Records
---
Amino acid sequence: MNKELLGILLIFGSTVLLAIPLGRYLATIYRGDKSWTDFLAPFERLLFRAGGIDANRGMTWQQHLVALLTINMVWFGWALLVLCTQGSLPLNPDHNPSMSPDQAFNTAISFLVNCNLQHYSGESGATYFSQVFCLMFLQFVTAATGMAACVVVFNALKEGTTEKLGNFYNYFVKSITRVLLPLSLALALVLVFQGTPMNWAAKAPIVTVQGDSVNVSRGPAAALIGIKQMGTNGGGFFGVNSAHPLENPTYLTNALENGAIVLIPIAMALAFGFYLGRPRLGWMVFGVMTAGYLLLQVPTVALEMHGNPAIARLGVDQSLGSMEGKEVRVGAAASALWAIQTTVTSNGSVNAMHDSLTPISGMNTLLGMMTNAFYGGVGVGFLNFFVFIIVAVFISGLMVGRTPEFLGKKIEAREMKIAIIIALLHPLLILTGTAMSAHLYAGNPTEYAGWLANPGYHGFSEMLYEYTSSAANNGSGFEGLGDNTPWWNISTGIVMVLARYLPIIGPVAIAGLLARKKFIPESAGTLRVDTATFGVMVFFVIWIIAALAFFPALALGPLAEHFTLYQ
Amino acid sequence: MATKSQSLFQPALVREAVGQAFVKLDPRVMFRNPVMFTVEIGTVVMFFVTIGLLFKPDAAQGSFGYNFTVFFVLFLTLLFANFAEAIAEARGKAQADSLRKTRQDTPANVRQPDGSMVAMSSAQLQKGQVFVVEAGELIPTDGEIIEGLATIDESAITGESAPVIREAGGDKSSVTGGTKVLSDRIVVQVTTAPGESFLDKMIALVEGASRQKTPNEIALTILLAGFTLVFVIVCVTLQPFAEYSKTPIAVASFIALFVCLIPTTIGGLLSAIGIAGMDRALRANVITKSGKAVETAGDIDVLLLDKTGTITIGNRKATHFWPAPGVGMQEFIEQATVSSLTDETPEGKSIVELARDNKVDPAQLRSRLDGAELIKFTAETRSSGVTLGNGTRIRKGAADAIRKLAEAAGNVYHDDVADRVKAVASNGGTPLVVSENDRVLGVVELQDIIKPGIQERFERLRAMGIKTVMVTGDNPLTAKFIAEKAGVDDFIAEAKPEDKMQYIRAEQQLGKLVAMMGDGTNDAPALAQADVGVAMNSGTQAAKEAGNMVDLDNDPTKLIEVVEIGKQLLMTRGTLTTFSIANDVAKYFAIVPALFMVAIPALGALNVMGLKSPQSAILSAVIFNALIIPALVPLALKGVAYKPVGASALLRRNLLIYGLGGVVVPFIGIKIIDLIVGAFL
């Protein structure tokens, strides 16, 4: 078998194998059952006492949301403050300047919402202080926010009727102490051993083999990269992210960083089943997610390994695959694997330039973010999926002649209204954002010439990608887009905020409303949701609701490019 | 009763519906249906574009003919959707009207407040008026007995010939118009004002004036509004996209894309489906007080069924003669037969039949009745019989009633007879004791006959996930026997109305939805408590008020049909929604290449159907979109067939038919239409 293919099969296979026990473990700690990490409990109690928090107080879904949003506001203020003043703060050996207000606004939001869209380059745009105490800090807490919100939904779907859905701070702190910290620490350690810097030193001048003298950036990179991969954050220490030789030095680090992208999202889907004591349910969710993921992944790997016909026509050998924008140490297959995994989850770190992917691969990365539920971000991926489950349950409930119910709770007009708003939000943000930019550009191509490196279909894809990435809280860029301008900073900033909080508020509200309803025991007439049939239904609901709306846009971007390229 | 096998499109109804289809174009009416309302807006825009082209041709917008065709097809789409709703309404109204006609006009003897009597027509009776009915007369209208006791033949409505006893006070005080008083005289107070009967209420519901959307319908409308909104966004943002790509798009193409993508199929049929559901209930002779009740019926988990009439045939049948010690079999059979020859009750008739089977010829016994006096069954004596010309008194009746007679006359009531009575009861039967001059002759065993096919119906219910509970006044032994034989899941024996109530409460506590049927006033709380309460038309006014459906046939098995009607209603909505949304895939592949093919020839690759030209592709898509609505009207009216095969199997089946079918059918349909349309362009 082709060595490259074997490599990516091993990466994905072993990630899934790791995710299964991790899923069980997540269910255990969130249920509050005994686990081997209980030795951390005194430390957690200390944190709660310091914060004056009663971690045993049950909260209603509204209280959860208030807690979540309040703490996010505080973080936003902190991030804005640090980014605007980083030039004068300590730990800035390279003397990088403070950010401009619109860039700081964009960056603060981008990290606050777990998106990590970067309209700056880490080497010159941030300082070690802001990287560690602002950006890395947010990478931990925002990932934990998503996980905590997800557990609230898990809790609400238990049997019986209840108002109280556990304690937000308890879920939040445990997500960090028991999951994110240990996993990122382990990954960071491997990275350090593989050559990723972990120091506070300034740039080092070196002379390359070619005889050029360059300044190489260093800093506390390994620590940030660990959580960047684990928490579906994706905001790299260096500008080119994991394509940078120090951020992702070897094939081994590439494999581990890549596996880390999907590890917690997969485990979270499985944890859903384990948490409710219905493992089949977790497997159904995992199955649907994996089917959707593979539908995007397989053609991408094939196309990238096949090479680019336009370059082949120039007489350049394409036997290694389409290598434009890719790293030789990683190769075409592993780059394709990363490209899809980083976009189906809301990670957004890259090890190759998505701008250079063949058109259909580029479209698949877009589709991964447009659906945003095939694994999805830590915690929030399941929340998005949950909305699609609600819609699928509703339609299929009607199809079997029963008032739709999910896990013993009736789905009625209120839940439907919320689910539809959330499902609508994504196409709304992406399409209107892109439409406004396209309109501006079309109205005055010379004034906005700086926006698009490639006009035409590809330029359209670049704009579409930027908004899709923002709305999916992904944060990867198609590059080629001159995005550090007030228009892009502010418009994507707004998209990011709306696309982060509404899809958290919506599912939590639905779950909270469901939890209050009377529980209906299962009977032979009840539609079982842990079956393959229902899985197929969810799968099609996702494609038809989330993907179909983008068909015209995709036709004008990647599809037009593809059919022109492969004519 | 109206003919049940009406064809779907009777010419008179179609004519009425076509007229209504135009009336319903009124935007104030259309506004209730967000999906079709947006189509109406699109049609109006197309109208102005077309008119504009007449004065100032614009090559970018296409020819006048093309634009007019698009406008016309959109207009047809609206009419088709309105027609679907109108035909459903017309059918419902026709059904209700024919039901109303079955209520015949009968004379009534009204007692005035001053005590004088006035003859009136039943149609003139007002609520609160009091009338008197004597033996042999028809009861003119529904009411409550305020004086007297009578045996009443309700076979005209119930189909059951055994007379029932109705008396003032208590639960059995309600009488129904059209039934006949057999004995005694009663004074009845009218309980419903003319025009306010349940039937009248139901007609108002069907006609739409008081029709409210059910919770499921509201939720579905939200979903459909969501889908409509998505495509508003898609179409509006397409304009700047096209601007960027330098591919101008004509107004007709925008509107065509939008109308094709929004779920017009289900949007156009939604209210027709709801009305048709109530209409189907009405066709089954069930009057529903709201559309919600029909839907709830589809969700029922537990079904409380009365034994008599539901599980067993209302009439018990004689199955055995058991002579008392010292009495010859021949003698016993003969005397039992003689006492039953003039007895018109089903029990009496079945005794004669059983005698014939035992080689006793009833015709030869008839001569003994010369000069005989018939003794009718009364509620007090609880026995009936004959006194022959020679003075011989033959009586048959309940065991304790005959026992009292025998013991009063100083005759022995044999232990053997008492044992036999007990044995018959524990075997699920009813013992009838026969005496001659107060001497016990023996026991006739009457057995409940389990309805043929009832086991299969319960099997079907079980497959739907519904638990059946038999309610009976019988002792637990008899009840258990019959319950097992009929295959019900549970039973309540020696049931008092409070027991029903308790059972319902307990099941509801577990989160289950319960349906029950009842007739008595003391059933009223239970009927109100049950999620679906079906009151029999013969029941008391209180019962009818408490339930949310009234069964005109007083047929307890009706609950099963009602459940299926409810399920069908939801399924029809679900499957047509799926079909409608699945259609979008093909429509995209028809319209998107048509929009861009001229400016971006490479996108011709998306024209997988090989449609002739952009214009023919767009026309084919809108024509398909319009035609699919009338094509599906029959399905909307009849409902999707329900098969009790379990929810997952049902979902698989419907996904295959309506999901996969919904993807494939439009590809074929649009291609065929394109071949035809292409020939004209």
---
Amino acid sequence: MAEEFKPKILGIVCNWCSYAGADLAGSARTQYPPDIRIVRMMCTGRLDPLFVMKAFVDGADGVLVSGCHFGDCHYLEGNYKAAKRMFLLKSLLRGIGIEDKRLRMTFVSASEGAKWAKVVEDVVKTIDELGPSPLREMAK
Amino acid sequence: MVDTTMEKNPRIGVFICHCGTNIAGSVDVKGLVEYAKTLPNVAFATDYQYVCSTPGQKIITDAISEHKLTGTVVAACSPRLHEPTFRTATKEGGLNPFRFEMANIREQNSWVHMHDREAATEKAKDAVRMAVAKASLLQDLEVKTVPVEKAALIVGAGVAGMQAALDLGNAGIKTYLVEKNPTIGGRMSQLDKTFPTLDCSQCILTPKMVDVYRNPNIELMTYSEVEAVEGYIGNFDVTIRKKARGVISMEEAEAKGIKGGGCNGCGDCEPVCPVIKPNPFEMGMKPRKAIYIYHPQVVPLLYTVDFDSCIKCGLCVEACGEKKAIDLEMMDEFVKLKIGTVIIATGYELFPVEKKTEWGYKQFDNVVTSLEFERLICASGPTGGNVIRPSDGQKPKKIGFVLCAGSRDNTGVGKPYCSRFCCMYSLKHAHQIIEKIPGATPYLFYMDIRSFGKMYEEFYYRIQDEGAKFIRGRVSNILEDPATKNLHVYTEDTLLGRPVDVELDMVVLAAAVQPMEGADTVRKLFGVSCSQDGWMLEAHPKLNPCGTTTAGVYLAGVCQGPKDIPDAVAQAEGAASVASIPLHRGFVELEPYFAQCIEEKCAGCGMCVNLCPYQALSLVEKEGRRLMQVTEAKCKGCGTCGGFCPGGAIWMQHFATPQIVAQIDAFLLGGEQ
């Protein structure tokens, strides 16, 4: 019997909006699934496609990129740049046989603690349904 | 030339905080310490009840020398709270403060997985492992200090903006006060009385307006808006659009060599103007001309031409004569300012209460908003202070006040929040009609009366004693009797538990407030966040209520959330105080998260140059090839260039690619010894 699937999800979030939103979820004690690990950057614009690909190669089942809402970026337009890179990454993932739903970008502001919890819940649900990443399976 | 070398034999100290039971309640802290000791590069690991306390910080400083640490990791709360504390402790221990990394095991762990100790502990182990991996690769960085322009900009000249300007001006700081309307004064100048003291609003405000005008350090820029913002704390480059006013002041006339000319506010131009428009200051209840002033006490006393409605007949120019104050061909002007710090005080407007169709505003003549009522009861208002029914000009005897008109409304039409000052001004209105109209009775329809301020509850008792009627119930419907134009107000009296139908002569809706139109544009120009309801977001609701996430930009007054005059003025004084700190200090420190060029990898393609939103990057010729160069003072460290560079030639200090990849690897590949 295979052991229970515990998804490994990497969250890449910006310091000003989504990281602060996640902190707010904490202050409000909003409970959400514990399957995500966070890497904080100043801006999602810092998102090097390499980071996402490295995560999948390392065996991540999903990657969440979360930044400010469009028009609210602390650095004016970094989130637009990140969003554009998502299209590239999603098509790369499809090309190597990884479901592109495993990569997601969301926009959570510093005041949206409840939304952050909802986003994580949602991402975990998606990955749960997809099961382990094909790359993780292959590595076994 | 950037130094990309990192510590060869890192020795990391890990300090894990219990935070009382905040962390220890959901995470096995002792187990976490034992786990940390197994990680590569960890030379020392310990736990403490409160690492942020003085003895807690001492553990860090002592351990650095005792164990010859090259970096520190604190697993505790959010770096947004205590990163500065632990950086300082790391520095006191003899290390560069940027050799510190924080693992957030409280806000993003113990508090959100309170009932799953096992999963929370596993997550904490991962977080510590990731932080150790990054800390092992962190480099020494130097904080950059830049000089500060000793000048402040205040956007919005309501009572909050004026107070902040006065405080800064009196402290000897050059202050630019920008106001989009032709006069300063804001909402408060529209009010008749103020609660609970019943001071005449204009009487206490106009002296302040005059003070602002006379203050030698305050440069008033009315009928002007912020057009563009560049730069950073201490060195903002702000462009102000001075909208074409069509009228020049006496000072401007003198500068132009028109002796004794310029607008002296005589008003000769106004009667001859053939164009009639509603005066927004009077909530549209009084006419104004295309050349106008809002009211007699405007500051500056200077007429304004409304070019949207002016037909350029030239009659005003004739009437003005030798003063030559009017120029109907005037164009918008742009002024560039060098600014050190900024205070936003853009205020509020009323929620368009006609959206709540059940109350009949804009359907029935005798339903008015609270601001319209302020003008109706004000001696300088359109009726000279005689409260009359708009339908027939008769004196109303029974006046209803609908509180929470659009506030505390979860239907999706109104606003979910409490607008905070409507209860109190409705009590004031009730008092005023009892005082002004013999035999009149106010009916207040309320959910709760929120009289929370100093002497507010006492004021509430006073109005009860004066005979105002209070009906606790949310008004479901207002209907008009077509013959009499009287209004039927339907609600449930929830204290008596029965439906109520009251026939009234007039109804005043205490409408919810919302951010001022255009405030969103200002907010985005300065990179300030907003909360879900659109109010500007303070840096911390309790401990940094005037600051924002943009260094050097502060908030005052209702733009940050509904507040009454005392609270708005208090916040303005607070904002002026914090905004003056960098100006008096003379320099600011910038976090050194700059981009750097790894010259041997740079192909000089220039992609990054176009990506940078701050024009911080440029291409230069060096030893016969093109290389990217960073202007550090302009770089804000977002990393957008670093995320794109196809050659991996950009080194983002403190967020360098190897440092981030180390975190990702530590999470997914483990790394326990």
